[in-house]
Every structure is written in structure tokens, then in C-alpha cells.
């Protein structure tokens, strides 16, 4: 070994004398530059493990081996007495009957629930203490907080670059950051609505499996967060509760829309793919079904400003009017489309007889509901609290009314329509009742500005074209909820709307089509924020939800 080391030293000295000691340094090319530091990736928020109020029972450990003789059934003793045999047969019959009852219970558990349900039944995964906190939270909200007052169009009529309302809104939106995030529901977010309460941030989310998540986004968490950096980074914010108003807990019960009751902010309406519309009251602690369609999925519901009437769309091309004052009497369903799904219905807030629909036939349509036949259907049956069974009006009966001339029945029923390049996902009125925003799979968001006199006229529109057309990727595929542009319901600010972006940001647009803000935080967001909504009266509030049930509150950094 000493001889080998001596040879190496001798060779190095020889190369140094010949000035060849650095000749091989560039043989394999220059030394690569050090890699730049990796960008910090967002880590999904992790649900906190809730501590049980009572100790869990130990799991029963089953043997790993079993007897073949026991599998064949009970041993029959040939010397068994008649009395013993009789007792054995009775026991076997009772066991078989219990097995049949269990099978029937399992079958019943897979069917929709149509009866009244207390909150304790809905909150299967919440303990008594958690349910009491939910009731206390909802009792603390302003009952009249959902009553909306529309002040008219407060935005600019022309594209004025220096509009002070737009510039002020842009400045306020630029200060929004991720204030709180949590996994509010167990599955994909399908729908959301922001509660009008001003003292706390209460948001309701409907998910793919019929679960209603209620998030008090800035409340103090029940469990303290660990001090280590990773726990702080992925900790959930606020408190949330999970209810199951629609059943079964599968994709057959996806909650398609959520609406706060305008007459009582302690109540909420939900429609779902279990073909039912339910009214859940946190004041009475009961959830009851007020409408259902047999074998027809309900896509959306919108409630009139008076809180006493609602319009419901379904996937079979139907539009249903329901008077909640007499749920057993006045429900009429019109097949306004031959077969195509109606994915959205929106009531004009200042002229509630004007309806907007968006459907899979690529069209959004503007209707004057006063022209619909049988709007008030006479019914000789006594009033009842049972869910309404609608009176049906077929498509063939409505078709001649679409092209009715002046003076004929149905004239002005279909006031306007516009065909998109692909399926129309949604169309909504803004708070002033003069602007429309639509979303389509043709990768465009379109905005209309309508004149009040044209809306007031009985005649159909001569021209119905969007004022702005915004390119926006809407190709969500099968694993994401459809993107829908949603107006801010606040009538006191420059008209604007929010929509999710396939690049994970939440985009805010003016009604003129200008980008106001793109809300994004690469350290906290790792998925498309497909579902969004805004606070009805606080400008600097927006929420978004993704395909895993994780939700984000956007608010100023310090308040």
C-alpha cells in the first residue's frame, strides 16, 4: 500500500513538472452550476383530529382461523329431545327474521329520505357539544339579515377608464389574502352561498355526496395547533360542521344549489340530485322536504326577493314555480326545453317575473313568466304540508307560444335568447336587474348590459347580444365542478363578478370586462378554485372551494 501511494505521489510530481496537472479538468466538460433552490410548493390544509368527548370502545379482535365445522351450521344432536329441537328451530327462525330486517334496513338506507329530520339525525358525525355550538352560532345571527334591498344600477353605463368606483374596487381587492382555509366537506364542492351576517364569516357549502358544510371561517379553532412549522402551515382555520340533509350519501345526492331564506336568515334551502328540495331551519332544529320530482334531478333553485316564491330547474328541461306559502297547492312545471338539461335559473331581483335560464342546448333564454299558461293552477285538493306534486305543462303545449304574434296568447313569453358555441353552464342577473353574466363550455364569459325600458316592454328584444366577451378556460372535465361566474350581490359597489381559473387563481372581473384582481397564493393553493361566492354586503370578502372539499376565505390581511 505504501508503494502504491508513493507511485501516485511520484506521478503527480512528474505531471506538475511537465505542467500537465490540470490537463484533464475540462475532459468531462465544465462543472455544472448548482441547481436553484426549489420553489416552495403549497401543502393542502389538513383536517384537525377531533377529540372524542367519550372514550372509544376497544375494537374486537377476531380470530384469524375459523372452524370448517362451525361454518356448516349448528351441530344437530341425534339424541336431541323434542323440546330442545323446538327451541333450536324457534331461535333459528328468529335469527332469519332479524337477518331479513337488516337487509330491509340496508335497502331503505340507500333510498332518499322524504320525512322530516331533526338536526341530530343530520349531524351523524357531530357530537352533542359540537351540535350545541352550531345551534348557538346560528341563533346569534340576525334573522332579518337576508332581506335584500336593491338600490338600482350603481355602476357606470359607459367604459370610462377613470371610473372612481372601479379604481377604488381594484385597490380594495388587491389587499385580499388567504385569511383562512379548511376541509369543510368530505367530497367535491358543488355549490356555495355566503351568509349575510356581518359579525362573522358564515359560508354554506354543498358537496358531491349530499353533505352540507357550514364554515365559521374566522372563529377560534376548538383544538390548539402544534407549535412546529409544518403543523402551523397546514392547520385549518375557523370551525365547521357537516350535516347530511340529502340521502343516500353518494353521488346520487349531490347538492346542486344552496340559498339562504330571504325571510329568515336562520334557514337554508338546498336542492340535490336525490330529486328533492329541502328547507333546513336552525331555529326549529328541523329539516323538511317541501318539493320533489320523481326520477328527475333538480339542478338549481332561486328564491324571489319576497321569499315566498321560487323557481326550480331540472335536468329534463323543466322549470317549476313553487309558492312556499301553500306547498301542497301551487306547483306547476313547464317543459320549456324538449329534452336538454336546464343547468341554471335566475330571478331578476327588481322585476321578479323576468327569468333567465341556461341549458345544454347552448342557449340562454330570457322569459316573462307572466305569459306562462297555468301559472296559478286551480286545485280543489285541501292545503297540506306534504311536498308539492306539480301540475305538468308539456313542451308541445308551449312550443306554439314561443313565436306568438302581438295580441295572441303567449306574446312576449320568450323575450330573448342567445346561442353560445357550446353548452351554456350558467346565466345570472346582477343586483340591479339590468346586467347578465353567462358562462359556457365554448371558453367564454359574456356580459350583457340591458336598458330598463327594453325590459319593461312586452315585446321581445329586437337585438340581444353581449356587450363584452371574455376568453376564459372552462374545460373542467369530469373531476371538477363546472365553472360559473357569480355576481357580487352587493349593490353598493361597482358591479363585478368572480370566477375560478384553471390556473388555480380566483379571478375578479368588472361588468365592463376588465380584470380587477387575480387572487392567488402559491404557498397555500394547490387546486382549481371551481366554486366561488361573495359576501352580500362586505366588499372585501370572497370564498372559493375545490374538488377535495377544501375551502378558502379571501379577506384583508389585517382588520
From TrEMBL:
Superkingdom of the source species: Eukaryota
Chain segments annotated as transmembrane: none
Residue ranges, annotated region (Disordered): 23-97, 218-237
WD repeat ranges per the UniProt record: 335-368, 417-458
Positions with biased composition (Basic residues): 40-52
Classification via SUPFAM superfamilies: WD40 repeat-like
Biased composition (Acidic residues): 223-233
GO molecular function: DNA binding
Any one GO CC term of the record: nucleus
InterPro entries listed in its UniProt record: WD40/YVTN_repeat-like_dom_sf, WD40_repeat_CS, WD40_repeat_dom_sf, WD40_rpt, WD_repeat_DNA-damage-binding
Keyword terms: DNA damage, DNA-binding, Repeat, WD repeat
An individual GO BP term: DNA damage response
Function: DNA-binding protein that binds to both single- and double-stranded DNA. Binds preferentially to UV-damaged DNA. May be involved in DNA-metabolic processes.
PANTHER family documented for this protein: WD REPEAT-CONTAINING PROTEIN 76
Membership in a protein family: Belongs to the WD repeat DDB2/WDR76 family.
Name of this chain's protein: DNA damage-binding protein CMR1
Native organism: Calocera cornea HHB12733
